[in-house]
């Protein structure tokens, strides 16, 4: 169980978890926008096109409600397929937006790659480099928080070892002088 908590602590303190938390918050807000788009714009338009039917209210009643003296004694049992249809519409809207965002990202990435290849050809023509292999390697990725913390830990260990060695040497010198 102790290893579990160590692994969990390691996982939770990674830089990626912060990105994930931000994505969850933004995703939640985006979900509300999509739900509103479906409920307040698309579904009413579809309802208008189908003769004023509110899709979310569509249902197949299996057992109707029973009322006695105006009080419901047995609640209605129904399959609410209209709400299911509305959830499918919400899903399709989200899928469409993700598809568009991904497509734009991939196009931008392709343009960057094409630009790099054109730039290399231009540099070769100008004689600045002789071949694509002459292009300097990209800068190394920045250190993660975990890497920096490991470096600090190692430096502290080194300092502790050095100070312990000095204390040991002093105690040996004191013992020699006392003898």
pLDDT under 50 segments (min length 5)?
none
Radius of gyration: 33 Å
- Distinct helical segment count: 4
Helix and strand string, N-terminal first? HHEEEEHH
Arrangement of strands in the largest sheet: 1-4
CATH architecture: Orthogonal Bundle
Strand count, sense and barrel status of the largest sheet are: 2 strands, antiparallel
Spatial shape: flat
Number of domains: 1
End-to-end separation? 53 Å
Helix content: over 70%
CATH fold naming: Non-ribosomal Peptide Synthetase Peptidyl Carrier Protein, Chain A
> What is the CATH superfamily classification?
Large-conductance mechanosensitive channel, MscL, domain 1
Q: How much strand?
A: 5-15%
Q: In terms of structural class, how would the helical and strand content be classed?
A: mainly alpha
Let me know the number of strands.
4
CATH class: Mainly Alpha
Oligomer: single chain
Mean pLDDT value: 80
